C-alpha cells in the first residue's frame, strides 16, 4: 500500500506545471575579455532548421517556438544580447549560410567530422534517445540481440541510426522507411513488428490518435547529443556559450526536455499487465517480510538471554584470572629478564628471559644469591638498596653494570629495582635489560662522529647540518665544520652562535634570494640549493654555492646535510663568458642589421637603376620598331625577341629586389605574412591558413624584418622536410608581446634537448635572441610541428 501511494504521489508530481527557463537570477562566470567581447557584439544571428518540436513557426502568432528556441532565448536573456532569427529549410542551406558568414549560432546540431570544418561545438545540452516502439500489449521489454529475421524492424533510411543498427546487430531484419511517420504506419499495418524512432519525433507523433495504440518497449543505446554550434572564426563566442550552458542546472534541462519531448502514451513499465504483476510481487514480498520479522524477533530474545548468561560467566572468569595476568605476562611475554629476590638476596623466581641472558638452564637461577651474577653486589650493598627501594617514593632504582654469565663471560646490562608486596611477602623485583647492542652502537656512533669530523676538516669547503628539534620549532645549525676558518675567516664555534649562522655572512643584496630559497626548502622539506655572494671576516667578497640534501628521519623530523663551496673563480669565468656571449650577440645583431640595410640598398639600386636602364632600352627598341620595322621584315622578328628579353629582365629585376627586401614589409608585418603565405601556397600547392589581427601597433623595422626572416626559414623547413598537407600561420598580440605561430600537420620530428644540429633552427634561435624574444618548438613523430615565436614590442 505504501509503495502504491508513493507511485501515485510521483505521478501527480509529474503532472504539475513546470516553470519555463529563467535567467534573471543567474550570474554567468565570464571573464573580463569575454564581457568585453559581448559588449562589442550585442546582436547575434541564429540559424535554425524548421523541424518540430525543436523549432516551429506559428503563422498565426508570427513567432518561433520549440525546445531550441526556448533554450536560445534563455541564453540571450542571460548574456543580455539580441537574437536575429533566420530560418532554413534543411541542414545544407544552414551550412551554406555559415560559409558566407550570415549565421553566428545554430542550436540543435550534432557534432560530425564534416561539421568541425565549419563550426565550433559546445558541450551537449540535450540527449535524445532512439526508442524501440511496438504495439501496446503489456509484454516484456525488447532486446535487439534476441531479434531475428522473423522480427522485422522499420527504421528511417538513410540515417546514422540505420548504419549503427547494421553494424552492431548483424542478424537484425531492417526495413527501410522514408520518415518516422511511415515507420509507425508500417508498425500499425503489421508489416513490421517494431519501429525505431527518436524521442523528439515520437513525442510529436504520439499526440495523434492514429498512433494511440503504441508503446515504447526499449532503447537502442545510441542517443543523439544536441549541441550549440558557433562560427569557427569567433572562438570567444564558443567559450561564452559553454559558460552559459554550464550555468543552466540539470533540473532545468530535464524540465526543458520533458516539456517538448514528453511522450503521450506510456512506456512498457506503465502498462496494466506490468502493474498487476508488480502488485502481486509486492504482496508476496510483504508476507515474507512479516514472517521473517516474526522469526527474527524470536531469535533476538533467545540470543539476548544467552548473551546475558555468557556475560555473567565472563565476568566471574575475569575476576578469577586477574591475579594471574601479571605473572603470565612477565613469564611469557616480557623480553626483559625479571628476578624476584628476597631480603637475603637469594632469587625466588626467574623468567625464561633472565635465565637465557645469564646462560643458565631452566630453574638454574632460583635460590642463587645475586652476588653470583653481580660480584659487586655484596650483602651490605644489597641491604642498602633494599632499604632505599622499600622507602623510596621516587620510583625504581636503576644503574648500569656488567653481569656475569654462567660461563664467566660479561653481560652489559641495565638493572632496575622495584619494591613489591605479594601475598604478605616482600620482594625486590630486578629487571635486567641486555644493552650489548646499544653499547656497540654507541661505540660505532662515536667512531663515526670522529670519522665525520676528520672528513669535514679536510673537505675544501664548509660542511654543515640544519636540524629542526620539533615539527613546530625553528631550524638551526647543529654542526659546522672547521673548514669555515679557511672559507670565511670565522671559527665553527663563532658561526654556531644563536645570532650568527650562515645568514650573517650573506651579502646584503643577496639576502632576499637566500631567505627565499631556504624558506622554500624548509617549508616543503626538500633539498636546498642557493648561489650568491658572502662576505669574509676581512670584508672581501666571495661567491658561494650551498647545496643541502633533506633526510627524513623515522620520527617525522627532517635534517639537512650540506656543504658550502667557494665558486668565486668559476663565477668570474661564468660572468666573463656571459658578457662575451652578449657582446657576440650584439655584434651578430649589428651585422644582421647592416646586412639587411645593405640588402635594402641593393634592392633599391637594382630596382631603380636597372629598371630605368631597361625602361630606356624598351623605349629605344619601340622607336626602332616604328622607324625601321617596315624596311626589313626580318628586323621585326628580332625586335620582338628583344622585347621579350627585356620583359624577362624586368621580371628578373623585380624577383631579385623582392628576394633582397620584399616591398610588402613597408605595408606592415601583417601584410608581409599574408603575402609570404600566398607565395608559399602558390609554390608548394599546400593550403596555408593565415590569422592576422586587423590592427597592429607600429613595429620597429629591425623587428619586422627579423620576424619576416624567421617566417621564411620556418616555411622553408616545412616545404623541405615536413611533408605537410596544411599549414596554419597565426599572429597574435598578447599584452606587450607579439606571438607568431607556425603549425603544420606533417611527419614531425624528435626535438633533441640542448644544441641543435640544424643550421636553420640555430639561425632562428639566434634571430629571436637578438630581438629579445623566445622560441619554442613542439613536435612529435607523426603528429606535426608547432613553432612559436614571442617578441616584445618594447
UniProtKB/TrEMBL annotation:
Pfam families: HATPase_c, HisKA_3, PAS_3, PAS_9, SBP_bac_3. Keywords: Coiled coil, Kinase, Membrane, Signal, Transferase, Transmembrane, Transmembrane helix, Two-component regulatory system. Residues 601-794 form the Histidine kinase domain. Residues 1-22 form the signal peptide. One of its GO terms (molecular function) is protein dimerization activity. The keyword Phosphoprotein does not apply. CDD domains: HATPase_UhpB-NarQ-NarX-like, PAS, PBP2_BvgS_HisK_like. SMART domains: HATPase_c, PAC, PAS, PBPb. The chain crosses the membrane at residues 274-296. InterPro entries: HATPase_C_sf, HATPase_dom, His_kinase_dom, PAC, PAS, PAS-assoc_C, PAS-like_dom_sf, PAS_fold_3. Residues 570-597 form a coiled coil. PROSITE patterns: HIS_KIN (PS50109), PAC (PS50113). One of its GO terms (cellular component) is membrane. It comes from the Bacteria. Residues 397-447, 528-579 form the PAC domain. PANTHER family: NITRATE/NITRITE SENSOR PROTEIN NARX-RELATED, OXYGEN SENSOR HISTIDINE KINASE NREB. This is PAS domain S-box protein.
Amino acid at each position: 500500500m505504501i509503495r502504491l501511494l508513493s507511485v501515485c504521489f510521483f505521478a501527480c508530481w509529474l503532472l504539475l506545471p513546470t516553470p519555463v527557463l529563467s535567467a534573471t537570477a543567474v550570474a554567468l562566470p565570464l571573464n573580463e575579455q569575454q564581457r568585453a567581447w559581448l559588449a562589442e557584439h550585442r546582436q547575434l544571428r541564429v540559424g535554425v532548421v524548421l523541424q518540430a518540436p525543436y523549432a516551429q513557426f506559428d503563422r498565426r502568432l508570427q513567432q518561433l517556438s520549440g525546445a531550441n528556441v526556448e533554450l536560445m532565448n534563455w541564453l540571450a536573456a542571460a548574456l543580455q544580447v539580441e537574437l536575429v532569427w533566420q530560418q532554413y529549410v534543411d541542414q545544407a542551406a544552414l551550412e551554406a549560410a555559415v560559409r558566407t558568414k550570415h549565421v553566428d549560432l545554430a542550436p540543435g546540431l550534432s557534432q560530425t567530422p564534416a561539421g568541425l570544418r565549419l563550426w565550433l561545438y559546445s558541450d551537449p545540452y540535450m540527449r535524445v534517445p532512439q526508442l524501440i516502439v511496438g504495439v501496446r500489449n503489456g509484454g516484456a521489454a525488447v532486446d535487439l540481440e534476441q531479434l531475428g529475421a522473423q522480427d522485422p524492424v522499420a527504421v528511417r533510411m538513410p540515417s546514422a541510426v540505420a548504419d549503427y543498427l547494421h553494424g552492431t546487430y548483424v542478424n537484425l531484419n531492417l526495413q527501410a522507411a522514408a520518415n518516422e511517420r511511415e515507420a509507425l504506419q508500417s508498425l500499425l499495418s503489421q508489416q513490421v513488428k517494431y519501429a525505431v524512432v527518436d524521442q523528439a519525433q515520437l513525442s510529436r507523433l504520439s499526440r495523434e490518435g492514429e498512433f494511440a495504440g503504441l508503446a515504447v518497449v526499449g532503447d537502442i543505446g545510441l542517443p543523439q547529443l544536441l549541441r550549440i554550434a558557433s562560427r569557427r572564426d569567433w572562438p570567444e563566442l564558443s567559450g561564452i556559450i559553454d559558460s552559459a550552458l554550464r550555468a543552466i542546472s540539470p533540473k532545468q534541462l530535464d524540465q526543458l526536455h520533458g516539456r517538448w519531448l514528453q511522450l503521450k502514451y506510456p512506456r512498457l513499465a506503465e502498462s496494466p499487465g506490468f502493474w498487476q504483476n508488480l502488485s502481486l510481487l509486492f504482496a508476496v514480498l510483504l508476507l515474507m517480510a512479516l514472517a521473517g520479522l516474526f522469526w527474527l524477533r524470536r531469535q533476538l530474545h533467545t540470543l539476548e538471554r544467552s548473551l546475558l548468561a555468557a556475560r555473567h560467566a565472563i565476568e566471574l572468569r575475569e575476576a578469577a584470572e586477574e591475579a594471574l595476568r601479571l605473572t603470565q605476562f612477565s613469564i611469557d611475554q616480557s623480553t626483559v629478564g625479571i628476578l624476584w629476590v628476597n631480603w637475603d638476596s637469594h632469587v625466588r623466581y626467574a623468567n625464561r628471559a633472565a635465565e637465557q641472558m645469564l646462560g643458565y638452564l631452566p630453574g638454574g637461577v632460583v635460590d642463587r644469591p645475586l652476588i653470583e651474577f653481580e660480584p659487586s653486589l655484596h650483602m651490605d650493598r644489597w641491604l642498602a638498596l633494599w632499604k632505599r627501594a622499600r622507602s623510596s617514593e621516587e620510583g625504581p632504582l636503576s644503574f648500569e653494570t656488567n653481569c656475569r654469565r654462567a660461563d664467566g663471560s660479561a653481560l652489559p646490562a641495565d638493572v632496575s629495582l622495584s619494591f613489591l608486596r605479594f601475598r604478605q611477602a616482600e620482594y625486590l623485583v630486578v629487571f635486567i635489560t641486555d644493552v650489548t647492542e646499544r653499547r656497540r652502537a654507541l661505540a660505532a656512533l662515536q667512531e663515526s662522529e670522529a670519522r665525520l669530523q676528520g672528513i669535514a676538516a679536510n673537505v675544501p669547503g664548509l660542511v654543515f647540518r640544519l636540524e629542526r628539534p620539533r615539527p613546530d620549532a625553528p631550524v638551526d645549525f647543529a654542526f659546522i665544520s672547521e673548514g669555515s676558518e679557511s672559507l670565511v675567516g670565522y671559527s665553527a664555534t663563532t658561526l654556531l652562535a644563536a645570532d650568527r649562522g650562515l645568514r650573517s655572512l650573506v651579502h646584503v643584496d643577496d639576502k632576499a634570494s637566500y631567505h627565499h630559497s631556504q624558506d622554500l626548502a624548509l617549508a616543503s622539506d626538500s633539498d636546498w640549493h642557493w648561489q650568491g655572494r658572502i662576505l669574509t671576516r676581512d670584508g672581501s667578497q666571495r661567491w658561494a654555492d650551498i647545496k643541502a640534501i633533506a633526510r627524513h628521519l623515522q620520527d617525522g623530523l627532517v635534517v639537512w646535510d650540506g656543504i658550502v663551496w667557494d665558486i668565486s673563480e668559476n663565477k668570474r669565468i661564468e660572468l666573463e663568458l656571459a658578457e662575451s656571449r652578449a657582446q657576440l650577440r650584439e655584434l651578430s645583431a649589428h651585422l644582421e642589421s647592416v646586412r639587411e640595410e645593405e640588402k635594402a640598398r641593393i634592392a633599391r639600386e637594382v630596382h631603380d637603376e636597372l629598371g630605368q636602364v631597361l625602361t630606356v632600352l624598351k623605349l629605344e627598341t619601340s622607336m626602332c620598331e616604328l622607324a625601321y620595322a617596315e624596311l626589313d621584315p626580318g628586323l621585326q622578328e628580332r625586335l620582338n625577341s628583344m622585347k621579350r628579353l627585356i620583359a624577362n629582365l624586368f621580371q628578373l629585376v623585380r624577383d631579385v629586389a623582392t628576394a633582397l627586401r620584399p616591398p610588402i614589409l613597408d605595408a606592415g608585418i601583417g601584410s608581409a605574412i599574408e603575402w609570404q603565405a600566398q607565395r608559399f601556397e602558390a609554390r608548394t600547392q599546400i593550403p596555408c591558413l593565415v590569422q592576422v589581427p586587423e590592427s597592429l601597433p607600429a613595429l620597429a623595422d629591425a623587428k619586422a624584418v627579423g620576424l619576416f626572416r624567421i617566417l621564411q626559414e620556418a616555411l622553408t623547413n616545412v616545404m623541405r622536410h615536413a611533408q605537410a598537407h596544411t599549414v596554419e600561420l597565426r599572429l597574435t598580440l598578447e599584452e606587450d608581446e607579439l606571438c607568431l605561430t607556425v603549425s603544420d600537420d606533417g611527419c614531425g620530428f624528435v626535438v633533441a634537448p640542448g644544441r641543435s644540429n640544424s643550421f636553420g633552427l640555430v639561425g632562428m634561435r639566434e634571430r629571436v635572441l637578438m630581438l629579445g624574444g623566445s622560441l619554442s618548438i613542439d613536435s612529435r613523430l607523426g603528429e606535426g610541428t608547432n613553432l612559436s615565436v614571442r617578441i616584445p614590442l618594447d
